[in-house]
Design a protein that fits this description.
The structure is a single chain. Helix content is 66%, strand content 9%. The chain is mainly α. The protein has 2 domains: 51 residues; 99 residues, no CATH class.
Amino acid sequence: MMAFTPWTPGVSVSHFLALLPDGCSASLAEGTLTIDGCTQQELDTALVTFTTDTETHQVMPVREMRRKALVKSVADFVETRYPSHLREMFTMLMLEAAINSQANRIAYIASLLSWIKEAAALSIAAEADLDAAADLQQVRDVTIDFSQVAASDPAVTVKMALMITN
């Protein structure tokens, strides 16, 4: 058994396959989706479901993939400027400063924490934009502009933190 249908580039085949009976496999060539192990009627029924409920079968899966990519881009942005080993050092220095009542060192390191929260806010805003996106194109158009956060980087260093003794 084999069935065929035209397929739009950029639309996820894997999410469509979930609507077909078990055992069906797909190949895509020159704008035609070929389904092996499935009747044309089964394909047509699945296609109606897929195209009728685009929110569930097309937009939501792409939204979730995009959400993960955007969250990762924020984490990667922070990691490139302040790798995890440096953030761990700052955590220890902050703890030491708290124990020793070193208010100036705490304030210095806290500027980095504020900056990281600013970067995290970009992710939260992007996720809200994704949730508000009404169609695939709007979901794909959600991006994060790091320019303001990049410009506000406090340039905190371990050396400077250690030099602050009060």
